[in-house]
Amino acid sequence: MLKVNPFGPSFSLFNKIPFSLLYRCGFRRAFRIFEAGHCNSFAKPVSIANVNVNFFAVDKTRNLSAVATAKKSGLNASTSSSRTNEMTKKAKKKARMESPEFLLKIKLDMCSKHGKIEEALRLYDESISNGVSLNLHHYNMLLYLCAREASGDGNQLNELKELGLKRGFEIFHKMVGDEVSPNETTFTSMARLAVAREDPDMAFELVKQMKSLGIPPRLRSYGPALLGFCEKGNAEKAYEVDAHMFESGVTPEEPELSALLKVSINTKKADKVYEMLQRLRASVRQVSESTLQVVEDWFKSKDAASVGAEKWDVKQIKEAVIGGGGGWHGLGWLGSGRWRVVRTEMTENGVCRSCGEKLVCIDIDPKETENFAAKLTELACSKEVRADFVQFQEWLQQHGPFDAVVDGANVALINSEAFNLNQLKNVVNKLQQMSPTKRSPLIILHRSRIARDPNNRKWLERWQRAGVLYATPYGSNDDWYWLYAAVSCKCLLVTNDEMRDHLFQLLGNSFFPRWKEKHQVRLSVTRTGLVLRMPPPYSIVIQESESGSWHVPSIADDDLLNPRQWLCACRSKKTP
């Protein structure tokens, strides 16, 4: 319904519009037509010159009213033109979806999804014969499939690998001939094809071309060249690719660092081995079984036994450890002789069951926590209703800080199909008893949980009145709320949520895993109820001690039945 100010100039204009036009088109549309076609100023009276108005008359046959009829240049023409444009859009869309180019795209996408290279190549040959114009997407799908088979990712027969390699370069030459501009995906596929042809130099040159063309390389762009040089044992070229990655702001992950570590071991570059272990410590923290095996092979080798300082400055080492936050010094190999290498476990207090050394708890820079809280706020406000989250921040400033934050729904539903309030109450009471201030923890719970069960509502509203329960609004994701509360209060977070979904991936893998390790309290189900599993008093990360020994943790689901495996490597001589 058109909203009209009865006291403004538009009201007089509204009175000028024939009622028959209002009846036919509706108030809103009639007003728009009248204003757009016949009015330059609201102040002057206007008239509709090109509309013939027939007064209403009763149709005796159908008992309906006859309405105004417009000239060809008037309303009917406008409506007809609108309908024609709409039909034209639909016709264009239909024509586009039925075009050979679009149908080829759909078919190639399906081939890519199911790894059907032979069918994709048949479609390609057929399209070229029929004169179908291929675009960037078509070529990228074909090159991806060829690179996939040529590199062996498709786990197919050698014939298909050769087919992918041969046709991949052929298709790329056709793409260049058609003057289709490549993008990052194109270069990455061609780099994989180059390495499949055992030519990592070509793969590296392709990455350099990307940068010169203003196309930012990604980690996957560098991967073929880096891994190709490592497999060939060409350490110097691998280090060159690594340096180029650094210049481009691309950070290697475990597969790349593991490959660099292995090629450094094979080429007897002990200093580079040390560097790669430090980089694994800083960015990966816990390693996969394959990387752990590479590390173990190094410490068991004669080369590892032959390197290391027999004497060192204890004060200098200690200062370096303190300066780095603990758990490493970065000043090179210490000690001499063979290493004693054992796969072992840690006690609850972080004492190695093999060498007896106690692991340390590595500090988190307070500035990093502040920056993380700011990033968390930015992300939450972009995903949630900003006003709701800001209101929560203000509430937290008024009622906080807390010693612990509880993910209410997660705790109440552990080992239970229904919301178990008593289970939640028991955990809250335990945390309150453990608190130095004996204060209740903050409970974060979705508002729908409070309104759902009348029996629970009374108790939950009591917590709410006491200022220890915050009900997140309808339509919100309470994960943002309990995570922000725990980070901003610098306190414990009680939840069994592994925090691995897309939401938490947005937070990155630099600071967040370290924060979670030091702050997350998990719960185990026993016959007597839930048991709180406090964060370990040591950091689960590669650690280098002041005496020169190393402890490397594996990636594992660390539980009571299957403790995490650690690699312990220490010298027989530990003192300078």
UniProtKB/TrEMBL annotation:
It catalyses: Endonucleolytic cleavage of RNA, removing 5'-extranucleotides from tRNA precursor. It is found in: Mitochondrion. One of its GO terms (biological process) is tRNA 5'-leader removal. Gene3D superfamilies: 3.40.50.11980, Tetratricopeptide repeat domain. One of its GO terms (molecular function) is metal ion binding. Its cofactor is Mg(2+). Residues 346-568 form the PRORP domain. Keywords: Hydrolase, Magnesium, Manganese, Metal-binding, Mitochondrion, Nuclease, Repeat, Transit peptide, tRNA processing, Zinc. It comes from Gossypium stocksii. Its main location: mitochondrion. The keyword Mitochondrion applies. One of its GO terms (cellular component) is mitochondrion. PPR repeats lie at residues 183-217, 218-252. This is ribonuclease P. PROSITE patterns: PPR (PS51375). Residues 92-305 form the PROP1-like PPR domain. Signal peptide: none annotated. Its EC number is 3.1.26.5.
